[in-house]
Design brief:
The protein has 539 residues and is an alpha+beta fold. 25% of the residues lie in helices and 22% in strands. It has 14 helices and 27 strands. The strands form 7 sheets. Strands 1, 2, 12, 13, 14, 15 and 27 form a 7-stranded mixed beta sheet that branches. Strands 8, 19, 20, 21, 22, 25 and 26 form a 7-stranded antiparallel beta sheet that branches. Strands 5-9-7-6 form a 4-stranded mixed beta sheet. Helix 9 links the parallel strand 16 and strand 17. The chain starts with a strand and ends in an 8-residue tail after the last helix.
């Protein structure tokens, strides 16, 4: 049996940060165990390659939701990263922290030290901001380069002009805590290549003598002595089982689906579910697997004119030139995020914070096909409720770790989610039909102008909406007095010794943003909590 000071389950965004920080002083040994393979494939480095990584099971867990009642019984594919770097190796590369109010809400729920001001040093610590920004809010010397989009298209400029025409100003920096406004997304792409958490944090850490990475290792269960975690049991590619022991702590960083599943398989979770699985009840925590939240996005598309869109740049005869530009480290469609511009708007003018998220791309995708471009010039304008109130669950179905769990996000179940999604679609349509976009707008292709009433638009949202790939909440952080909390504000599992969960699953509420940035901050803070350090003690 191998023995390390710390054993981390999952080499995703959080796990990569943890192995770096916990090993940086050279005094502690750390092992990270990852079910997926290495991240050396060129499709991972080339930003546009993400469209190929979402299919099959080479790079992802090919999870699907249970049929969602509010979507008319529709199931949705929700692939999650299964590769070194986790979802940061296959996602859309947008860097978005969220609003200060998102994290202040976490603190107000009884989680001491988790307000925006508390987390700001951790956002800054990991970041190397390349571009404009107020240094009170932005980091300049961290491992993760954050850059501005350098490929400017007339459609995107017209979209932002349209927002300004509606009284939504261009925001100088949406990552400074206040989001209302419009602009281009920042991203973790540098010199034309994706910078995943593995590249930024894990690879430097693996050069140290006391760190280890095990790939192709499916974790079977946590090793327990009573209510104390002592290690991890995993199965290698040949089906052989191994145990890695932890002198100090076991840290579960397997994501919002696999982290609760692993706890459940190890006897930590709702007692009724554990009994159904035939698992020993080590710690009856009712909240394990509950409170699942995800962004639900609904995209409108239109046919464009008088402009060249991504649809044409990504095909012959223009594609070879785009490849040449990318190889020369010049602006190219190969180095773009799938979404490049945004509007953070309000469903009512009296609101203090934005509650609508509009996403824009000067390109469009075929109806019913994930990220397959249309064969005509197009543009996409999507809408999402950034703080969804609908909640669901993740539940293991057997003791076999190879069996996928039940995943039910309950998209659009909450009335507020329906109402705000509808308001977002109305705003998206108004932007598409604005005077600023008129020279480029030919016709709406999805859902089409004939779909106009509230009921028709909401039905369209039910039929065509998709995951935002931002699953959180299934090991929710909260005080011991909260019967549904799984970890405390030091990320320790309630009632279990030497065990923490540190990943997106601990978020009590979904931030109004992509989740990568906040997951990195969680891991930064988690590493300090483990080592007993204050936020100011940056390495």
């Amino acid at each position: 049996m191998d023995t390390f000071d710390y054993v981390v389950v999952g080499a995703g965004a959080a796990g990569c940060v943890l192995i770096n920080r916990l090993s940086e002083d050279g005094a502690a040994s750390v092992c990270v165990i990852e079910a997926g393979g290495n991240d050396r494939h060129p499709l991972i480095s080339i930003p546009a390659g993400f469209v190929k990584t979402l299919y099959g099971d080479r790079f992802v867990w090919p999870f699907e939701t249970e049929p969602s009642p509010a979507l008319g019984g529709r199931s949705i594919a929700i692939p999650q990263g299964r590769v070194v770097g986790g979802s940061s190796s296959i996602n859309g590369m947008v860097y978005n922290r969220g609003q200060a109010a998102d994290f202040d809400t976490w603190a107000q729920m009884g989680n001491r030290g988790w307000g925006f001001d508390d987390l700001l040093p951790y956002f800054k610590r990991s970041e190397r901001r390349i571009g404009a920004g107020d240094d009170r809010f932005r980091g300049r010397v961290g491992e993760l380069p954050i850059t501005d989009i350098d490929w400017i298209n007339p459609l995107a400029e017209a979209f932002l002009d349209a927002a300004e025409g509606m009284g939504i100003p261009r925001t100088p920096d949406y990552n400074a805590g206040y989001q209302f406004g419009a602009g281009y997304f920042q991203r973790y792409i540098h010199e034309g290549k994706r910078v995943s958490a593995a590249k930024a944090f894990l690879r430097p850490a693996l050069r140290r003598k006391l760190t280890a990475l095990r790939t192709g290792a499916q974790v079977v269960a946590l090793e327990m002595e009573g209510r104390k975690a002592t290690g991890v049991r995993y199965r290698d590619g040949a089906g052989n089982e191994h145990v890695v022991q932890a002198r100090r702590e076991v840290i579960v960083s397997a994501g919002a689906v696999n982290s609760p599943k692993l706890l459940q398989l190890s006897g930590i979770g709702p007692a009724g579910l554990l009994n159904d699985l035939g698992a020993p009840v080590v710690a009856p925590l009712a909240g394990v697997g509950e409170n699942l939240r995800d962004h639900y996005s609904v995209r409108m598309t239109a046919r464009a004119r008088n402009v060249v869109t991504i649809n044409e740049y990504a095909r012959w005869p223009r594609l070879p030139l785009e490849v040449a530009k990318w190889l020369g480290r010049k602006p190219s469609v190969l180095a773009l995020c799938p979404t490049i511009a945004f509007v953070h708007g309000k469903s009512h003018p009296d609101l203090e914070e934005s509650d609508l998220r509009i996403l824009f791309t000067p390109g469009s995708y075929q109806d019913g096909r994930v990220y397959v471009l249309d064969d005509f010039p197009g543009m996409t304008c999507g809408a999402a409720q950034p703080r969804p109130e609908s909640t669901g669950y993740v539940r293991a179905v057997s003791r076999d770790p190879a069996d996928a769990p039940v995943v039910q996000p309950n998209y659009l179940a909450a009335e507020a989610d329906q109402r705000i999604t509808l308001a977002g679609l109305r705003l998206a349509r108004a932007l598409l039909n604005s005077p600023e976009l008129a020279p480029f707008f030919e016709t709406e292709t999805l859902p089409g102008a004939a779909v106009n009433s509230d009921d028709e638009l909401l039905d369209f949202a039910r039929q065509r909406g998709n995951t935002g790939y931002h699953l959180v909440g299934t090991c929710r952080m909260g005080p011991a007095t909260d019967a549904t909390a799984v970890v405390d504000d030091e990320l320790r599992v309630h009632g279990v010794g030497n065990l923490r969960v540190i990943d997106a699953s601990i978020m009590p509420m979904l931030p109004s943003a992509n989740t990568f940035a906040s997951t990195i901050a969680i891991a930064e803070k988690g590493a300090d909590l483990i080592r007993g350090r204050e936020a100011g003690a940056a390495s």
